[in-house]
Amino acid sequence: MELAGGQSGKRSDAGIAEGEDVVGCTVCDAVYRLPRGMADQSTQCARCGHKLSFGTNTALAWVVSLSATNVVLLFLVVFLPFLELRSGQFGSEASVIDVILGFSSGIMVPLALAVLAFILMLPLSRFVLLIYALGPIALGTTNLPNAARALRWAFALKPWAMAEIFMVGVAVALVKLADLATLAIGPAFWIFALLVVLNALQDTLMCRHTLWTALTCNG
Amino acid sequence: MQRVITARDTGRVICRSCGLVASIGQDRCPRCSARLQSRDTQSQQKVWAWWLVGLIAFIPANLYPMLRTTQNFRTEDSTIIGGVVDLIDHQAYAVAIIVFVASIVIPVGKFIVIAYLAVLTGRAHRTDPHRLLVLHEVVEFIGRWSMIDVFVVAILTALVQFDVLATINPGIAAVCFALSVVFTMLAAQSFDSRQIWDRLEESAHHG
Ligand SMILES: [Zn+2]
Ligand SMILES: [Zn+2]
Fold this sequence. Notes:
The complex is a heterodimer of chains A (219) and B (207). Chain A is of the alpha+beta class. Chain A has helices at 59-79, 96-101, 109-139, 147-156, 163-177, 187-205, 208-217; strands at residues 2-3, 20-24, 31-35, 42-44, 51-54, 81-87, 90-95, 182-185. In chain A, the strands form three sheets. In chain A, strands 1-3-2 form a three-stranded antiparallel sheet, with no helix packed on it. In chain A, helix 1 (59-79) packs antiparallel against helix 3 (109-139) and helix 3 (109-139) packs across helix 4 (147-156). Chain A starts with a strand and ends with a helix. Chain B has helices at residues 43-63, 80-89, 93-121, 129-142, 148-159, 172-190, 194-206, and strands at 12-14, 21-23, 67-71, 74-78, 166-170. In chain B, the strands form two sheets. Chain B has a three-stranded antiparallel sheet. The radius of gyration of chain B is 22 Å and the shape is elongated. In chain B, helix 3 (93-121) packs across helix 4. The complex binds zinc ion (2 copies). One zinc ion binds at residues 25, 27-28, 30, 45, 47-48, 50 of chain A.
């Protein structure tokens, strides 16, 4: 990896020669020449330390299959009971849908929509966008229309998908309710926990450089 | 240290979304069609605007109740701090610390750090850019965790709907707090990290 200068010479306008990529650091604006072979290794920006490539060239198939698994798990989570609560003869089961409907009146409606978005819709959209953008590459077919836009949104949505934070919220809620009632953890809780782990694994494979290069080269 | 060549030096723009190095003068990235900007000249104003609305929402979030618990015909309101005190009363110290850190320490720390970053990068500085970048990354990574308390309120509301024994309803502070988290996340995202290095170079040239 070397720093890419501006003197274009015989190079094209973007300064790209055969067999190498020009990679920009999105954090500090530094530009590097990255020989094609080196993109399979982990590379870091020399100035700010930002990871330019993760060095995971088999990541793409994994990202797609993990996304598909996560979509299935999310659907299970929504409809299976999440927590069950018993106190004397009273008892209630709450699925994630119930959690959201708990807010469904008056000024709390926007809050209900926000919770719905943060814990379900945004994670779901992210997985669907990734499958849409990268699925055809994994299957060896041509890209679907607007695949690039879909991949851009999949990256942009990352900070707004808060499934793992919801899990900590559940743990805190369990403690707060401990002396009010008897609580049982429903199947959706464990599926959600699995989903959080798979999601974290997927994020370590989301190398911008690899995924964008794959999408561009697929034409 | 070897002088780094930046995209701006060579008349190019790096797409902040996909990392493509594009030639300047293009409005949108040819690869992912994100808007291209060599430097976000308005980032400073955007950061301060989101920071301010975040702070405005944070004040009622702490003054008004997060939860209204009705038990044995008595209604009790509990604020964020009140909820932490309740947890301490129940000897749930670890959880009390989690809630306190997520709902008070992180939001307050975030306001201070974003303001510090915005002030410093607004003018020439000599601060170690790596330190500023680490601060920015920490703020971006940690900010979303403040949502814990909002989710707790949502879960409690859904679970505890016993008509006679107890009911729990969300208070107005839950909405304010959620808005405050969203606004401060937007403030952190509006920050243009490339300017940390620009202003450092400026100070090196002049001094
Ligand atoms: Zn960099
Ligand atoms: Zn782009």
